[in-house]
C-alpha cells in the first residue's frame, strides 16, 4: 500500500486541482464574453482600415462594403517601391530609436536617485518633470521651430529625437522609478560591502534586476515618440521628413487618396506591434513590482 | 524605509534635468515673452503689460467668453472620458487571463490602437463614422439614432469621446493588468480560504493594491484628454460651430489662424497654470499614498 500511497496522494491533489479549474472555468464565461465583445469593438476600426487599404478609392467613397470585394495590394506595392515613402519610414524609425535610447539612458540614474535618496528640491524637480507631460505640443511647435533652427539642427532626425525628450524623459523616469522601488535596498548595501564600485554595481547587478522595467519603459518611449507628429512635422522640411508628414501630403494630391492613406496607416502599426511583442512578458510581469 | 539625504544624487539627475530644461525652458520663455507684448507686424513688438490676461479672464470680452467656453468643454470632456475609460479599463483587465499562451497575443492586440499615429486614428474615424460608407455611422443610423459626426453638435462631441475611449482605454488596461499581476498569489489564496466572493476580492484586495497604478492612470489620462488636439482637428475640425473646439484647437486657431500671438500666449500660460494646479493636487495625493506606505 505504501508503495502507491504517494502517487495516489498526488492524484488526489491533481483531481482537486482539476475540480477547482472546472469551477473557475464555469465562472470565467462572463469575463470571456466581455473580453470578446471588447476585442470586437477594438478591432472593427482597425479592420476597417485594413479593408480600406485593399479597396480602390471609388469603391471606398461609393459603397458600404463589409469586406473588400476586389482586394488589391496595389497601394502597398506603390508605397514600398516609392523612395520617398521608404525614406520617410526609415527616418521615423531612426528618430524614434535615438529618442528611446536617450530617454531610457538618461532616466535610469535619475529614477534610481529619485527612489533612493533625498536631495534638495527632489519633490519639486519630480513634479516639474511630470508637468512637462501636459505641455500642449500645439503651443510649443512655433518656439521649437525657432530654437532648433537657431542651433542648426532643423530638418535632422536629432531635432525630433531631442524634442520628443520633452515628454518621453519624464515618462521614462516615472515608470522606471516604480521598478527601482521594487528592488530591495539590501541589494545595494550588499554590493557595496562586496566591494562593487557604484557604476559597476549599477550596470552588472542593478540593471539586470530591472530588465523588465527597461523593456516596458522602452516600449512606452517608442510608442509616444512614434505616434507624435505635430512636433515631428514642424521640425522637419525635406531631408528628415517623417512618415506622418508624407502621409499628410497625400491629402492634397487629387483630393483624398483614402486607399493610399489607409495602406500607409496599416504599415505604421507594424513597428509598434513588433516592439510590444518583444516586451509582452515584461508588461505581464507587473508594473512597479512590489509596491502597487 | 527612510531615504538617505544625499545631495550628490543631483549628479544622477543632471542629464534628465538638462535634457528637459533644454526643451522646456526656452520655448516657455518665448511664450511668456509674447504674452506681455503686442505686435504691429514686421516683428515690431512693444510692452503690453497684463492686458492680454485681463481680456482673457474677463468673460465679457470676446476672447474671454471663448476661453471660458473652451475650458468648460475641456473639463467636461476629460471628466466623461475618464469616467468611461477607467472603469472599462479595470473591468477588461480583470477579464484577461492571469497566465497562459493567450496573454501575449491578447496584450499585443489590445495595444494596437495606441500604436497608430494620431492622424491615422483621425483618418480611420473620419470614414468609419460616416453614415453612408462607414460601419459605425451606418450602424447607428440603422438603429434609428440621428447621427452625423460632422453636422450634429452632439454627435460630433460624442464621436470624439468614442474615439478617445477606443484609442486610450488600452493604456488603462495595460497598466491595470500589470498592476494586477504584481499582487502576490497568497492574497488570492487567503481570499479563497475565506470563501470571499468575486466582488469582495475585488473591493478588499485588488482595488487597494491598484491604488498607486490607478493614480498614475488617472493623472496620465487626465493630462492627455485635457490637451486633446489631433482627433478633433482631423475628424471634426473643431466644428460644427464650436462644438468640439477644445482649448488646444482654439489656441492654434488664434495663434496661427489669426496670428494673434499675444492672446494665444496668454491663453496657453493660463491653460498651463490650470493643468499645473490640477496635477499638483493629483501629485500631492500620490505623495500622501507613498508616505502612508512607508510609514
Instruction: Indicate the radius of gyration of chain B in whole angstroms.
Output: 23 Å
Helix/strand class of chain A: mainly alpha
- Give the strand tally of chain A: 1
Helix content of chain A: over 70%
What kind of sheet is the major sheet of chain B? 2 strands, antiparallel
What topology, given as strand order, has the largest sheet of chain B?
Answer: 2-3
CATH T-level fold name of chain B:
MetI-like fold
Shape of chain B: globular
Secondary structure: elements and pairs:
The complex is a heterodimer of chains A (292) and B (295).
Chain A: H1 2-27, H2 29-54, H3 57-62, H4 74-81, H5 83-116, E1 117-118, H6 122-131, H7 137-150, H8 157-181, H9 185-193, H10 198-209, H11 211-227, H12 230-234, H13 243-249, H14 258-285
Helix pairs in contact in A: 2-14, 5-8, 5-11, 5-13, 8-11, 9-10, 11-14
Chain B: E1 4-5, H1 9-35, E2 37-39, E3 45-47, H2 51-57, H3 62-95, H4 103-111, H5 118-128, H6 135-142, H7 153-181, H8 185-193, H9 198-226, H10 230-235, H11 247-257, H12 261-294
Antiparallel strand pairs in B: 2-3
Helix pairs in contact in B: 1-12, 3-7, 3-9, 7-9, 9-12, 11-12
Describe the structure.
The complex is a heterodimer of chains A (292) and B (295). Chain A is mostly helical and 292 residues long. Chain A folds into two domains: 2-62, no CATH class; 75-291, MetI-like (MetI-like fold), CATH 1.10.3720.10. Chain A has helices at 2-27, 29-54, 57-62, 74-81, 83-116, 122-131, 137-150, 157-181, 185-193, 198-209, 211-227, 230-234, 243-249, 258-285; one strand at 117-118. The model of chain A is unreliable at 1-16 and 288-292 (pLDDT under 50). By secondary structure, chain B is mainly α. Chain B has a single domain, classed as MetI-like (MetI-like fold). Helix content of chain B is 73%, strand content 3%. In chain B, helix 7 crosses helix 9 (198-226) and helix 11 (247-257) packs antiparallel against helix 12. Chain B starts with a strand and ends with a helix. The mean pLDDT of chain B is 81. Chains A and B meet through helix 2, helix 3, helix 5, strand 1 and helix 6 of A and strand 1, helix 1, helix 3, helix 4 and helix 5 of B.
Amino acid at each position: 500500500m505504501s508503495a502507491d500511497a504517494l502517487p495516489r496522494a498526488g492524484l488526489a491533489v491533481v483531481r482537486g486541482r482539476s475540480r477547482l479549474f472546472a469551477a473557475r472555468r464555469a465562472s470565467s464565461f462572463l469575463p470571456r464574453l466581455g473580453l470578446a465583445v471588447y476585442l470586437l469593438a477594438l478591432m472593427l476600426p482597425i479592420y476597417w482600415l485594413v479593408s480600406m487599404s485593399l479597396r480602390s478609392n471609388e469603391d471606398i467613397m461609393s459603397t458600404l462594403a463589409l469586406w473588400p470585394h476586389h482586394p488589391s495590394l496595389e497601394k502597398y506595392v506603390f508605397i514600398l517601391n516609392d523612395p520617398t515613402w521608404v525614406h520617410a519610414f526609415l527616418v521615423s524609425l531612426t528618430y524614434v530609436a535615438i529618442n528611446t535610447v536617450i530617454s531610457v539612458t538618461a532616466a535610469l540614474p535619475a529614477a534610481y536617485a529619485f527612489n533612493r535618496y533625498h536631495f534638495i528640491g527632489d519633490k519639486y524637480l519630480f513634479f516639474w518633470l511630470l508637468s512637462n507631460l501636459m505641455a500642449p505640443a500645439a503651443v510649443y511647435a512655433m518656439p521649437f521651430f525657432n530654437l532648433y533652427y537657431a542651433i542648426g539642427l532643423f530638418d535632422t532626425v536629432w531635432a525630433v529625437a531631442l524634442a520628443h525628450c520633452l515628454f518621453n524623459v519624464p515618462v521614462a523616469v516615472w515608470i522606471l522609478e516604480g521598478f527601482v522601488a521594487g528592488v530591495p535596498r539590501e541589494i545595494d548595501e550588499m554590493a557595496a560591502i562586496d566591494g562593487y564600485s557604484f557604476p559597476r554595481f549599477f550596470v552588472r547587478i542593478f540593471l539586470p534586476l530591472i530588465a523588465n522595467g527597461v523593456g516596458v519603459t522602452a516600449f512606452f518611449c517608442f510608442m509616444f515618440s512614434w505616434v507624435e507628429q505635430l512636433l515631428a512635422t514642424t521640425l522637419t522640411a525635406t531631408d528628415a521628413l517623417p512618415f506622418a508628414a508624407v502621409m499628410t501630403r497625400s491629402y492634397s494630391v487629387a483630393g483624398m487618396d483614402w486607399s493610399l492613406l489607409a495602406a500607409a496607416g496599416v504599415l505604421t502599426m507594424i513597428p509598434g506591434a513588433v516592439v510590444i511583442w518583444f516586451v509582452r512578458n515584461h508588461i505581464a510581469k507587473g508594473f512597479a513590482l512590489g509596491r502597487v | 524605509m527612510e531615504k538617505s539625504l544625499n545631495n550628490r544624487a543631483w549628479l544622477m539627475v543632471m542629464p534628465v534635468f538638462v535634457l528637459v530644461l533644454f526643451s522646456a525652458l526656452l520655448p516657455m520663455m518665448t511664450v511668456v515673452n509674447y504674452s506681455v507684448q503686442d505686435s504691429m507686424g514686421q516683428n515690431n513688438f512693444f510692452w503690453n503689460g497684463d492686458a492680454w490676461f485681463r481680456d482673457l479672464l474677463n468673460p465679457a470680452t470676446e476672447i474671454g467668453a471663448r476661453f471660458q467656453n473652451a475650458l468648460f468643454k475641456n473639463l467636461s470632456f476629460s471628466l466623461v472620458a475618464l469616467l468611461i475609460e477607467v472603469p472599462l479599463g479595470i473591468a477588461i483587465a480583470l477579464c484577461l487571463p492571469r497566465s497562459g499562451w493567450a496573454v501575449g497575443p491578447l496584450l499585443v492586440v489590445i495595444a494596437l490602437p495606441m500604436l497608430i499615429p494620431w492622424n491615422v486614428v483621425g483618418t480611420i474615424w473620419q470614414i468609419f463614422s460616416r453614415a453612408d460608407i462607414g460601419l459605425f455611422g451606418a450602424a447607428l443610423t440603422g438603429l434609428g439614432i440621428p447621427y452625423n459626426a460632422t453636422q450634429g453638435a452632439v454627435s460630433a462631441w460624442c464621436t470624439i469621446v468614442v474615439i478617445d475611449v477606443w484609442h486610450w482605454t488600452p493604456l488603462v488596461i495595460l497598466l491595470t493588468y500589470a498592476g494586477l499581476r504584481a499582487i502576490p498569489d497568497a492574497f488570492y489564496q487567503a481570499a479563497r480560504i475565506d470563501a470571499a466572493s468575486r466582488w469582495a476580492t475585488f473591493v478588499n484586495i485588488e482595488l487597494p493594491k491598484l491604488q498607486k497604478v490607478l493614480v498614475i492612470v488617472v493623472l496620465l489620462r487626465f493630462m492627455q484628454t485635457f490637451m486633446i488636439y489631433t482627433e478633433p482637428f482631423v475628424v471634426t475640425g473643431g466644428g460644427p460651430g464650436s462644438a468640439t473646439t477644445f482649448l488646444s484647437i482654439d489656441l492654434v486657431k488664434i495663434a496661427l489662424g489669426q496670428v494673434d500671438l499675444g492672446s494665444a500666449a496668454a491663453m496657453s500660460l493660463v491653460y498651463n497654470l490650470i493643468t499645473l494646479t490640477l496635477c499638483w493636487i493629483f501629485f500631492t495625493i500620490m505623495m500622501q499614498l507613498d508616505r502612508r506606505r512607508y510609514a
